[in-house]
Write a structure and sequence with these properties.
single chain; alpha+beta; Four Helix Bundle (Hemerythrin (Met), subunit A); Nonspecific Lipid-transfer Protein, Chain A; four-stranded mixed beta sheet; two-stranded antiparallel ribbon; 9 helices; 6 strands
């Protein structure tokens, strides 16, 4: 049993409700996230949800489908073009309905999976538990652009702890992905959860330390906010460098957004 599958379902439902109750039926609104539209965000989530499902249920088929996408990227289609090439140009309410129905199936199959079962992915294999946590993180982070565009301040739940922990665990990855050596020691991270609990990671330190709101920390490590646009307290050169380039998601090195670029519309 993988409890994070229910967290993924909850976050997906929250995004679905946000879109269906706050738009007039069109999903063409362009967001602050690389000028992706709602259509492109939902399609992106749906494509990788489908691939995650295959990675768990049919690893050989996953490899075949993943090769199609990678080939399109290498031939110059870009990520959005490759996803269109693989999935097609379904848009609007039809896309929303298919994504909605499919993410429920994904949550169901992962909820029943062995947490330690290994599944293939874009990088190294990972556990089934890590895979659904990655889908939770992707859904939560891409949803932020929709919240921002609609001028809605999201209300997080404590299930974002999985995202925060992923952010902490990818400290070294952030630097390795940039062909840099991760500076040591790792900063002490103390976060205030949505419910008021305190979450700690790494060895306590007043020299290398990050403290503040868990939601804001998640925004920084998923690159939905620049560190300058948060109230996180960041002390120490290692902590400051990390927060300036933090990246908890797979793929090539990405730069965080410029200060003030990704924000909630007033």
């Amino acid at each position: 049993m993988i409890p994070e599958a229910n967290d993924f379902l909850s976050e997906s439902n929250a995004l679905h409700e946000l879109i269906t109750t706050n738009t007039d039926g069109s999903l063409n609104e362009v967001t602050f996230f690389k000028e992706w539209s709602f259509n492109e965000i939902v399609r992106h989530l749906h494509v990788w949800n489908k691939l995650a499902y295959l990675s768990l249920t049919n690893a050989n088929q996953f490899q075949k489908e993943f090769e199609i996408i990678i080939t399109a990227v290498l031939e110059g289609a870009g990520q959005r073009g490759a996803e269109l090439h693989w999935f097609g140009d379904m848009q609007g309410q039809a896309l929303l309905a298919e994504w909605h129905n499919y993410y429920q199936q994904l949550a169901d199959v992962f909820a029943q999976a062995d947490p330690e079962h290994r599944v293939p992915w874009a990088g190294p294999d990972m556990s089934a538990q890590s895979s659904i946590i990655a889908r939770l993180m992707e859904t939560w982070s891409h949803a932020q652009a929709v919240y921002d565009e609609l001028g809605v301040v999201r209300q997080n739940g404590d299930h974002i702890k999985s995202i925060a922990e992923l952010g902490v665990r990818t400290y070294r990855w952030t630097f390795v992905n940039r062909k840099q050596e991760a500076p040591m020691p790792k900063p002490f991270v103390r976060l205030h959860s949505p419910s008021g609990a305190i979450w700690d990671w790494n060895e306590p330190s007043d020299v290398e330390r990050i403290e503040g709101d868990a939601g804001e920390f998640c925004q920084v490590v998923t690159q939905t906010r620049n560190i300058a646009d948060t109230n996180l307290n960041v002390n120490g050169p290692n902590a400051r460098l990390w927060m300036s380039i933090a990246q908890c998601f797979a793929g090539g090195a990405e730069n965080p957004p410029a200060p003030g670029l990704r924000r909630t519309k007033s």
